[in-house]
Amino acid sequence: MSTPKKDIEKVEVRVKWDPSDVGEPDNDLDIIAATYSTEEPYGSPVYLVHFDSRSPDGTITLDRDSRTGQGFGFDEVMTLELDRLSDAYARVVVGVAIQQRDGHKTFGQVEQTGVQIREGYTNLAEDDFSSVAGNTAAVVAEFIRDSSGSWGFNEVVRGFDGDPDSFAAAMGSR
Length: 174
Description:
mainly beta, 5-stranded antiparallel β-sheet
């Protein structure tokens, strides 16, 4: 477990998992980032960034998207340039959701899952989702801007059950 860190500028959230067995539906995990306004940091997200999208200003981008988990290393990578994010935003919450197209699938049913949050070459947090093995989605990071404008990092792994749409709507709640 890491400690809260201040003055975060640019981070990468990286997720990995093994492909499903032959003949089984694909394992498809997705990184989702939700951005919250200064006026309502715990209200509804102003916008979401996930597969097939990016932030309107280009500060949050999905650099790598996998629908199967095939390949080496990390299968999905999202970059958050918090130092460039408008002052209108005070909070960014990042989560990982498992697509539920072919039935109910939890983290415990996907082999070799892992998430890593990095700033440059420094690992801010790592987790294998074992604490949320019975869930279909999990919040993995929270970035909060303080009154001086600096971004801080809170490591959290909080599980949810539901499809990616319902998770995206609820992931920033308290």
